[in-house]
Amino acid sequence: MTSILLEPFFQRAMLAGLAVALVSGPVGCFIVWRRMAYFGESLAHSGLLGVGLGLLFSFNVTLGAVVTAIVFALLLLALRRRHSLATDTLLGILSYTSLALGLIVVGLATGAASDHMDILFGDVLTVSTNDVWAVWIGAAVVLASLAFLWRDLIASSVHEELARAEGVRVARVELGFILLIAVMTAIAMKIVGLLLITALMVIPAAAARRLATTPESMAFIAAAIAGLSVISGLLASAFVGGASGPCVVLAASCFFALTLAVPQAS
Fold first, then answer.
1. Higher-pLDDT residue of 81, 35
2. Taking a C-beta distance cutoff of 8 angstroms, is the pair 185, 194 a contact?
3. Under a CB-based contact definition with an 8 Å cutoff, are residues 123 and 3 in contact?
4. d(CA 167, CA 187)
5. Which tens digit of pLDDT belongs to each residue from 82-126?
6. CB 46 within 8 A of CB 76
7. What secondary structure does DSSP assign to 205-239, as a single string?
8. 230-244 as b/e, with b when 16 or more CB fall inside 10 Å?
9. Cα–Cα dist 17/8, whole Å
10. Are 195 and 121 in contact (CB under 8 A)?
11. Model's pTM, two decimal places?
């Protein structure tokens, strides 16, 4: 066990996982406040199509995941404005269509979709030094962008009409936040996998909501819980030999369960 902790691949996994945790906590807070968990999951599903296209046409799969997630979000916004279907119905249609297409395209590119199960469930133990740098740079960009949008996002999350009356460009802020989720999806893809990314954003934020008294404290606590989840999950993965991504998410669920025993902050 101790020898595994000293291995370079495990240390790289820790560094990459902590970078994702640092971002997933604050971003997850807005997903919880705005009740966008299903949207985040759908956006992650669309990323699989981008990965498949990247493998098929030999370009960067992370870039492919970001581009398809952005296209997915813009398509959803356009359809929501032009058609009478409910948002959750549109999300279901687009989500599972893109997931099915993604699995087919990955299969065409590799010969078998099962060869890339790490895309769906993550494999943080295989990250390279370049991957670590890319994740930290991506995390820094997302955090800086979130800090820039923070006040407007808070205002539009609390009361959209009032925020609009105060001069907040709600549509632009919403689009900016969607882009942040898309980037977050891409940088977390190798850590917990496309099917579990939303869980790492939502569960720590839901746990932090019970402990926090201000939006800022909730974001900080959510990032801390996500970080502890990454550390605990990777240690559990090394100890029992389980897949790293699911272990991280299970650890987050355990922390959430612990917060249920704590009186909710007022």
1. 35
2. yes
3. no
4. 32
5. 666 677 777 778 778 888 888 788 777 766 555 556 666 667 777
6. no
7. HHHHHTT-SSHHHHHHHHHHHHHHHHHHHHHHHHH
8. bbbbbbbbbeeeebb
9. 14
10. yes
11. 0.84
